[in-house]
Write a structure and sequence with these properties.
The structure holds two protein chains of two kinds. Chain A is mostly helical. Helix content of chain A is about 70%, strand content about 0%. The longest helix of chain A is centred in the middle third of the chain and has 32 residues. The longest helix of chain B has about 40 residues. The chains are: A mainly alpha, B mainly alpha. Chains A and B meet through helix 2, helix 3, helix 4, helix 5 and helix 10 of A and helix 2, helix 3, strand 2 and helix 15 of B. Chain B: InterPro entries: Cyt-d_ubiquinol_oxidase_su_1 (IPR002585).
């Protein structure tokens, strides 16, 4: 059972890593037109995440692979049960992935605008969809005795899950706004900061309601405590943004994201996917797991390589630690001229 | 159509499509790493210009390979949940290792390579491309291990009570002979893919070289790439053919039905001939007319011209005894023709590389247009070869998803409706169609643009020290730096 617990924790950590890291790059994508406004401003935004978004996304792929390896029943029930939701998620991930790479490869404004919309729509949709998905994991889904999902797509759109979707969206927008305040300069930074300050109260309120509701559905008091800590952390991030302590604000918004995800996993433990039909039909860390042989093997692989991965990924963040301003952005090929006062420094 | 048929179509379409881009990425990453190493060692800007040129094309291609790979990982759970439950204990491990050991390496060092021109020393920058190249090859290793397990399940016991395969020996899974030869075959094939892009696009850019000064300059810069591509294509073709031959021998042992079907060999034969072309009856169950080379099939399968090769009918009878009544034959015409298409593509690339090396020997460049167009057409060779190879190897395994252990018909998700699968099949096929048009358009655009000028290439590697979050002028430090006065206003060497 130690190994089952270990892998429950490791998979939770992978999801935490995913939401914390891709969370801010979703936020940046979603704020493309609000904070970026004009062409050069938008490119500042995209370049703040350009070198790192792909690595952030691998946390998701690793979480998926690790779930397949450690809890195959969980992987099978969840991925087949959330079929149409995952279809939309995949379309968004595919569109978003090529959009970053292809946006700057064309030479017309129309071309760039199309990819901007791809980035924008997918960056709004993905946090909502992930929030809804995890809302359903926490709430439980109709699993039959064979651990097969027997509900419909519409069952996934229940009020609690939708609230969780909205919460994650607001959180990600705040987290992204804080990241942009940290990584940009001048007017782009001012807009990011102003937006964050306006939005954060809504995110804090939504999260507060969501974690209390989550506690009423399931979970130990510890899950509630961690959820409330996430709310507090976000409030502190908001306060720090007010006084322009950008670095610390980012640490706190990242912490808040990590704590919210932690509260989900604490709420469902020792289940991995609770059944709403009969608690006995729930998938647990025991009945969903691989054999001790596989879990042991994967543990050694994880112990050997996770520190290495975290190390070089951290290094890449260090290499690209510099703030980016519109002055650093070279001209787009074939751009219609006149970039207005935005480009001036303050 | 039922959910099973649709799920099979979806898997086929998305996998073949994914694998149009992956081998090109693997091959190009390796060749670009070689060129960048040449740049670091010689400091001759001609190499840097080539790296920059191929780098752009590589990134366009790599992006699609990455995003279509995400779908591959999710698809097992979505469409094939029963399969996932059955094999998760053994199949999930290589997938998780692939993500942890390969995907992180690729994505992180890709980011560093794209944006790091002016932030890393040339050596470190070059090392990033090598790590990226290693990442692409590691990724292929783990995915091939997972696939080889499906072709020949080793290192497992079946737990009847839990209804699943349980891993007992990871080493057997990762290093069974089928896996090692299949991996070698795929990597060698990927080298052909990358080199065909090098040769084809260099040829396309050079074919008009006498028209203007710019064309002459393009030809001068890309000539080393053309030669490198041709040499790599020769090596890749030879290795593909050798590894393919050795793989076929292992497959004859562990998947006799697939190899018999590949030859449309109905009855067990001593000294079996290799058929170059066979016309069969409409139901594909017997032969009407063929051109044959005596003894070659036996040699391919057993290393002896008179060796015994088991026929489809005999394997079928044996399997019925072993696994109970049922049809254990794949669709013979599909396996037969895909096998020929795959081999034909391999030999065509070998011929192309030899002709190309001869025509460009000692500084020569051919004058005839059609030679250049032939090189451009060569890009299609490995694409056809890889697609046919995958269709052959996956269709040849039917009706099994895990040979001898688990049937494809049992693998599909029981609660996912045909309508859902049809929806995703239509969505992904349409999306992939759009991506293909965009990709080809961009490849042409950047191939046409040609390599950057020497000044442009050198300007991008001028180093500048990064300024940190906290060294703003407002007196704060560390994480609390609120602004950046930004003395350095040079544009980034690379920006999206």
């Amino acid at each position: 059972m130690f190994l089952n617990n270990l892998w429950f924790v490791l998979i939770a950590l992978l999801w935490i890593g995913y939401f914390v890291l891709e969370g801010f790059d979703f936020g940046v994508g979603a704020l493309l037109r609000i904070v970026g406004r004009k062409e050069k401003g938008r490119r500042v935004l995209i370049n703040t995440i350009g070198p790192v978004w792909d690595g952030n996304e691998v946390w998701l792929l690793t979480a998926g692979g690790a779930t397949f390896a450690a809890f195959p029943e969980w992987y099978a029930s969840m991925f087949s049960g959330f079929y149409l939701a995952l279809l939309v998620i995949l379309v968004c991930l595919i569109g978003r992935g090529v959009a970053f790479e292809y946006r700057g490869k064309g030479s017309t404004d129309t071309w760039r605008a199309r990819w901007d919309w791809t980035i924008l729509i997918s960056s709004w949709a993905l946090p909502v969809l992930w929030g809804v998905a995890f809302g359903n994991v926490v709430r439980g889904v109709p699993l039959d005795a064979d651990h097969e999902y027997v509900g419909t797509f519409l069952d996934l759109l229940n009020p609690f899950a939708l609230l969780m979707g909205v919460t994650v969206l607001l959180l990600v927008l705040t987290h992204g706004g804080v990241y942009l305040s940290l990584k940009t300069t001048a007017q782009v930074r001012d807009r990011a900061q102003a937006f964050t300050l306006r939005l954060a109260p809504f995110a804090i309120a939504a999260m507060a309601v969501a974690v209390v509701w989550q506690y009423l559905i399931r979970g130990p008091v510890l899950s509630l405590a961690v959820g409330l800590a996430a709310v507090v952390a976000l409030a502190v991030a908001w306060a720090l943004t007010r006084v322009s302590r950008d670095g610390w604000a980012f640490v706190l918004s990242a912490l808040s994201t990590g704590l919210l995800v932690t509260s989900w996993f604490l709420a469902i433990y020792p289940n991995v996917l609770p059944s709403t039909l009969d608690p006995a039909w729930s998938l647990t860390i025991e009945n969903a797991a691989s054999t001790p042989y596989t879990l042991t093997l994967m543990s050694w692989v994880a112990i050997a390589f996770v520190p290495l991965v975290v190390g070089y990924q951290a290094w890449s963040y260090w290499v690209f630690r510099k703030r980016i301003s519109v002055r650093h952005i070279p001209d787009s090929p074939g751009a219609t001229a006149q970039e207005s006062p935005q480009t001036s420094s303050r | 159509m039922d959910a099973l048929t649709l799920a099979r179509w979806q898997f086929g379409i998305t996998t073949v499509y994914h694998f149009l881009f992956v081998p090109i990425s693997i091959g190009m990453a390796f060749l670009i790493a070689l060129l960048e190493t040449a740049w670091v060692r010689t400091r001759n800007p001609i190499y840097l210009r080539q790296v920059k040129f191929w780098g752009k094309l590589f990134l366009i291609n790599f992006a699609i390979g990455v995003v279509t790979g995400i779908l591959q990982e999710f698809q097992f759970g979505m469409n094939w949940s029963s399969y996932s439950r059955f094999v998760g204990d053994v199949f999930g491990a290589p997938l998780a290792m692939e993500a942890l050991l390969a995907f992180f390496l690729e994505s992180t060092f890709l980011g560093l390579w794209i944006f790091g021109w002016d932030k890393l020393s040339p050596k470190l920058h070059c090392a990033c491309m090598w790590l990226l190249s290693i990442g692409t090859m590691l990724s292929a290793f783990f995915i091939m291990a997972a696939n080889s397990f499906m072709q020949n399940p080793v290192g497992v016991t079946v737990n009847v009570e839990r209804g699943r395969a349980e891993m007992v020996d990871i080493w057997a899974v990762l290093t069974q002979p089928l896996q090692l030869w299949a991996y070698a075959h795929v990597i060698a094939g990927a080298l052909i893919s990358g080199s065909a892009i090098f040769v084809g696009i260099a040829a396309w850019a050079m074919k008009n070289r006498d028209r203007s000064e710019r064309h002459a300059e393009t030809a001068r810069v890309l000539r080393p790439s053309l030669r490198l591509g041709l040499v790599a294509m020769l090596i890749g073709s030879v290795l593909t053919i050798v590894s393919g031959d050795l793989l076929a021998k292992v497959m004859t042992d562990v998947q006799p039905m697939k190899m018999a079907a590949a030859e449309a060999l109905w009855d067990t034969t001593d000294g079996a001939s290799f058929s170059v072309i066979t016309i069969g009856t409409l139901d594909g169950r017997s032969e009407v007319w063929s051109i044959r080379v005596p003894g070659v099939l036996s040699f391919m399968a057993t290393e002896s011209f008179s060796g015994t090769v088991e026929g489809i009918n005999d394997v079928q009878a044996r399997y019925e005894q072993q696994y109970g009544p049922g049809d254990y034959r794949p669709i013979v015409p599909v396996t037969y023709w895909m096998f020929r298409l795959m081999m034909g593509a391999g030999f065509a690339m070998l011929a192309l590389s030899i002709v190309g090396l001869w025509l460009t020997r000692k500084g020569r460049l051919p004058q005839q247009k059609w030679v250049w167009w032939l090189a451009v057409g060569g890009i299609a060779g490995p694409i056809v070869g890889h697609s046919a190879g995958w269709i052959f190897t996956e269709m040849g395994r039917q009706p099994w998803s895990v040979l001898g252990l688990y049937k494809t018909a049992d693998s599909v998700s029981p609660t996912v409706s045909a309508g859902s699968v049809l929806t995703s099949l239509i969505v992904f096929t349409a999306l992939y169609g759009v991506l293909a048009v965009v990709e080809v358009g961009l490849m042409l655009k950047y191939a046409k643009a040609g390599p950057p000028s020497e000044e442009e290439a050198l300007a991008s590697i001028e180093r500048r020290p990064p300024r940190s979050w906290g060294d703003g002028s407002d007196g704060t430090s560390g994480l609390d730096g609120s602004d950046d006065d930004d003395a350095d206003e040079r544009p980034m060497a690379f920006a999206y």
